[in-house]
Amino acid sequence: MRLHPILFAGPPKSGARSPQREPVPFKMLLPLQLKKTVSGKGDKLKEAACMQEMAVMFACFKKSDFDQTECLKEVAAFQGCYKEYNDRMTTQREQGKKGILVPGEKKLTHRQLNQLLKSFPPKK
Amino acid sequence: MSNHIRHLNKCILRYPSYTLPRISVVLQTREYSRPTSFPDFFQNPIFRKEDQAKLIESSELSKIAALPVKPPAVYETSSVYHDPLVNKVINHVMEKGNKQLARNLVEKAFENIKRSQIERYHLATTPEAKAKIELDPKKILHKAIANSKPLLQLQPIKRGGITYQVPGPITEKRSLFLAIKWLLEATYEKERTVHFPKQFAWELLDAANNTGKVVKKKQDLHRQCEANRAYAHYRWQ
């Protein structure tokens, strides 16, 4: 191997960094306080929509060999559930986007919460 | 514009190439008319009487009345013969904007349906059997599409490096699209000697009867969804 000055230019490659010695000193990188906003992660639904209705429909399908005409009630329930879910989501999205505050509402979306936090900022 | 181009082409063709210097400009022709563009705030026309009645009932007419409206297309009429679903099917059949041909094909299929249903009607002996036979081809189309609409769909969702086919509900719009697509796919899968209107009429009659290729395809999709129901909780939503 040809020796070149560049090979010696970097940090020493004699070994790994030595482990930190206890006690490790605390360095404050950010101020120790909560942010003045909330993130929207908690708003996501854990459960997928209309699982119960889908299971009931599958059971009926299996019984009638996938003939839809024999499961009209179950199919209607499933479709109604999905439609209701969609409508709810769209209204929620619209209201959330605008950040409209409904008086007396117990469950707030993160956008509404941020709206409130912005208009009444927390004091130190 | 296209007329001019056609005229120019004729002029060029009339003279042999050695008399005219060779034109290097490429003439672009379009096979379809370009839609007129309107600004965003122009509203779509509401041309059906039912929709207008709905607007008046919900008292939203006064909101729209002041806004500028696009002119309706030629096929958008308030005639009693106008059916949005039939128009949709015609648009799916259409290729390269040749609406006239598409419309002719669909109407020919309707004629075939009517003929075969009338034949069956006259072959039926009892009045009860006659009453059961549907003679309106548009009603048969509606029924066929309703019967071929899937209720569920499989979405590929990647979890832990493996792609699962996850069953879930389907939107109304996608369901309608798939129904029409499957009906047309089944129709295109035909012998060369059988023409489109005939095959399309057969497929529509089969689907309206809740039998045939398309209904089987829908049921197969439902079966697959049922087999994959264990993955249903992977859906996020």
From TrEMBL, chain A:
Single GO MF descriptor: RNA binding
Membrane spanning stretches: none
Superkingdom of the organism of origin: Eukaryota
Sequence segments annotated as region (Disordered): 1-22
InterPro entries: Cys_alpha_HP_mot_SF (IPR009069), Ribosomal_mS37_met (IPR033620)
A GO CC term attached to the entry: nucleoplasm
One BP term from GO: mitochondrial translation
The protein, known as: Uncharacterized protein LOC118266184
Higher taxonomy: Eukaryota, Metazoa, Ecdysozoa, Arthropoda, Hexapoda
Gene name of the encoded protein: LOC118266184
TrEMBL record, chain B:
Stretches assigned to the Small ribosomal subunit protein uS7 domain: 76-229
Pfam families: Ribosomal_S7
Single biological process term from Gene Ontology: translation
Signal peptide: none
Keywords: Ribonucleoprotein, Ribosomal protein
Family: Belongs to the universal ribosomal protein uS7 family.
Designated name of the protein: 28S ribosomal protein S7, mitochondrial
Taxonomic lineage from the root: Eukaryota, Metazoa, Ecdysozoa, Arthropoda, Hexapoda
Gene: LOC118264212
